[in-house]
Amino acid sequence: DAVLLYLEWTFPVQGRDYLDGSCMVYSEDRLLDVVDYRGAQSVNRSSCSSASLEWSAGRGETGSVVHSGDVMAHSGGRHAIIVRLSELPAHATDCFFALSAYSCRNLSKFISPRVRFFDLEDKGHLLCSYNLNEAGCASASVISSLMRERPGGQGEDGGAGGWSVVAYGQTCDGTVRDYRPIEAAIAPVQAKYANWRRRAPLVELTWLWNHTRAFPRASAERQNVVLPLLDLNPELFMHVVSFL
Q1: Which residues of 122-157 are buried (b: 16+ CB within 10 A; e: fewer)?
Q2: Rounded-to-integer distance, Cα 85 and Cα 194, Å
Q3: 3-state class of 62 per DSSP?
Q4: In a structure prediction context, what are the per-residue pLDDT tens digits for the chain, which is 244 residues long?
Q5: What are the C-alpha distances in Å from 140 to residues 181, 190, 205?
Q6: DSSP string of 176-211?
């Protein structure tokens, strides 16, 4: 019902700096809201991302996505992000988690960073962890996401399903001051939704045709193009549709 992202770091050798953990909530390929150490963008009304702000992650401890803010110690700091999955809107499909270096723009300068992802109800259940050494000298990294599973399959009207953890480790530019490079790194992953929107009408028409619930009404010229496609075997049909 809820997950916890726990991030801790030691300051770089030269100077005090911050390792920022952020949660970006998507509805398919549309960014809804961003939550970082400042709270939800929909609340603070910053212009750090292209989020539509049509939905808000909320404010403070009652929010759907809660960020601890900077919790600092003498040698470093930590962030904790809680996502209450049951409180996300039904049209929310993905929550991406990103790390970024606030000032130095180099993740490799942080000493002994630890990133762990837990089931909030059972903190002994580690969902995944991330080794920041894999990010090299990048300014930011999209480390993982929560992806909603649709009971009826992608794009079908089956209601909201459960969630699964997907590991990425995609490095990119960007900081909490400007999420656009991070959004650009996420865009190829979210392209699957636009692909489905292009393919769905033809897939649905084929299902109706194969179950004798659709009949030709177009001109003879159009029938000569469409009907052979509907009669292809399923594997060949899906191969053709994949080009849409």
Answers
A1: eeeeebeebebeebeebbbbbbbbbbbebeeeebee
A2: 24
A3: helix
A4: 899 999 999 999 888 999 999 999 999 999 999 999 999 999 999 999 999 999 999 998 889 999 999 999 999 999 999 999 999 999 999 999 999 999 999 999 998 899 999 999 888 888 888 888 778 899 999 999 999 987 544 444 444 678 999 988 899 999 999 999 999 999 999 999 988 777 666 666 666 667 676 566 655 555 555 666 666 666 666 656 566 5
A5: 9, 18, 43
A6: TTB-HHHHHHHHHHHHHHHHHHHHHHHHHHHHHHHT
Instruction: Scan for tokens 């995944």, then name that residue.
Output: 128
Structure tokens at 235: 């594997």
Q: Is the Cβ–Cβ distance between 16 and 24 less than 8 Å?
A: no
Distance, CA of 96 to CA of 81 (rounded, Å): 12
The total of other beta-carbon atoms located within 10 Å of residue 174's CB is 25
- In contact, 21 and 99? CB cutoff 8 Å: yes
Nearest to 24 by CA among 1, 10, 5, 11: 5
d(CA 17, CA 199): 46
Residue whose entry in the numeric block shows the structure tokens 């292209």: 50
